[in-house]
Design goal:
The chain contains 5 helices and 6 strands; from the N terminus they run αββββαβααβα. The strands form 2 sheets. Strands 5-3-4-6 form a 4-stranded mixed β-sheet, with helices on one face. It has a two-stranded antiparallel ribbon with strand order 1-2. With 97 residues, it is an alpha+beta fold. The radius of gyration is 15 Å and the shape is elongated. The two termini are 19 Å apart.
């Protein structure tokens, strides 16, 4: 629930958190992925790099392409990727506790 404490009310639409980020000025799409500090990155992009929230948190690039304009489909897209060993260690610790 830490994420929800840092999100403004207007970031919610129909009960879903809007968190894929797009910038028409810099022509990028940021696709959030789980456990990669994507909330902090999205906030930074919105505050300093003309980003705006679209779709929902952890939306896929396929979902974006379904509703994107032709120009938006050509934007640079990126996401964070977590080291698979870190994922394994985290899952082990969560199950152990």
């Amino acid at each position: 629930m830490e994420v929800l404490n840092n999100v403004k009310h207007q970031d919610f639409t129909e009960g879903r958190l809007r968190s894929m980020v797009i910038s028409h000025r810099y022509h990028y799409i940021f696709v959030q992925t789980m456990k990669t500090a994507s909330t902090a990155i999205a906030r930074e992009l919105c505050e300093h790099y003309d980003g705006e929230h679209i779709l929902h948190k952890h939306a896929t690039i396929s979902e974006f392409r379904e509703q994107a304009s032709e120009a938006e489909r050509g934007y640079f897209s990126f996401a964070g990727v977590r080291n698979p060993l870190d994922v394994l260690v985290s899952r082990f610790v969560l199950r152990r506790d």
